[in-house]
């Protein structure tokens, strides 16, 4: 099994953490999606990572589809409840965490990909408001619990950890820890896990 990804992507990290927790072996192929000659589109026409290449050559994307596939691959350390309200709750946490990252990503791209005179401050403010509101919902949802939901470590915690870890990595100037002490505590706890340590975001 081959994972096309990068060492900084929060979505790739989410997949790598699930692979690690479920003890699934894989090959990581690093691709820079921003390089003009990158080959990602040969696997995923959307040109996005992560993209999982299965043993039969089939491609799986995006990260939510990949982690759902992986969780069903082996009974080792199930991270998504089998069905019902519990499954929906975990997947909604994942959508919240990925949505926070999506918004932060768009705000950052507005600065990195556009010359100053073309940037829209209103657009950046719109995206960062989504980030702030997502943080509030995460903090309220976690409360003083040990895990996001179901009273145990699930994909919800993996997704939240990847989103907060990416904010820490790419938005060091954004102080989300002071207003959301419980989220800061949760991330610091998750960062002790080998799966998080081994996939800490870094530049290639
Ligand atoms: C988002 C992946 C994504 O935007 C998922 O896998 O969950 N919904 C998808 N990945 C970025 C790389 S990143 O996270 O550093 C990506 O591939 N961007 C390239 C592009 O063309 O948007």
How would you describe this structure to a colleague?
The chain is of the alpha+beta class and 204 residues long. The protein folds into 2 domains: 70 residues, 3-Layer(aba) Sandwich (Glutaredoxin), CATH 3.40.30.10; 110 residues, Glutathione S-transferase Yfyf (Class Pi), Chain A, domain 2 (Up-down Bundle), CATH 1.20.1050. The chain is 53% helix and 6% strand. It contains 8 helices and 4 strands. It has a 4-stranded mixed beta sheet. A hairpin with a 5-residue loop joins β3 and β4. α1 runs parallel beside α3 and α4 packs antiparallel against α5. The longest helix is centred in the middle third of the chain and has 29 residues. The chain is globular and about 50 Å long. Bound molecules: L-gamma-glutamyl-3-sulfino-L-alanylglycine (GSF). The site of L-gamma-glutamyl-3-sulfino-L-alanylglycine has 14 residues, from α1 and α3.
Keywords, separated by commas or semicolons:
single chain; 204 residues; alpha+beta; Glutaredoxin; 2 domains; 4 strands; binds L-gamma-glutamyl-3-sulfino-L-alanylglycine
CATH class of the largest domain: Mainly Alpha
Low-pLDDT ranges = none
CATH topology of the largest domain: Glutathione S-transferase Yfyf (Class Pi), Chain A, domain 2
The ordered string of helix (H) and strand (E) elements is: EHEHEEHHHHHH
Q: Give the class from helix and strand content and strand pairing.
A: alpha+beta
Number of helices: 8
The side-by-side strand order for the widest beta sheet comes to 2-1-3-4
Q: What is the radius of gyration computed over CA atoms, rounded to a whole number of angstroms? A: 17 Å
Mean pLDDT: 96
Overall shape: it is globular
Q: Please report the total strand number as a whole number.
A: 4
């Amino acid at each position: 099994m081959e994972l096309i990804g990068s060492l900084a992507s929060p979505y790739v990290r989410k997949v790598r953490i699930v692979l690690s927790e479920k003890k699934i072996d894989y090959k990581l192929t690093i691709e820079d999606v921003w390089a003009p000659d990158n080959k990602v589109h040969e696997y995923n026409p959307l040109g996005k990572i992560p993209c999982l290449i299965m043993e039969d050559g089939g491609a799986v994307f995006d990260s939510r589809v990949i982690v759902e596939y992986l969780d069903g691959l082996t009974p080792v350390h199930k991270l998504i409840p089998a069905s019902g309200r519990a499954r929906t709750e975990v997947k909604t946490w994942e959508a919240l965490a990925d949505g926070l990252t999506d918004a932060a990503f768009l705000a950052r791209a507005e600065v990195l990909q556009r010359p100053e005179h073309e940037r829209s401050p209103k657009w950046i403010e719109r995206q960062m408001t989504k980030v702030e509101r997502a943080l509030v919902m995460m903090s309220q949802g976690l409360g003083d619990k040990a895990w996001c939901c179901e009273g145990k470590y699930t994909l919800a915690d993996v997704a939240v950890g990847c989103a907060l870890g990416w904010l820490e990595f790419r938005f060091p100037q954004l102080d989300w820890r002071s207003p959301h002490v419980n989220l800061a505590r949760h991330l610091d706890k998750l960062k002790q896990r080998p799966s998080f340590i081994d996939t800490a975001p870094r530049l290639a």
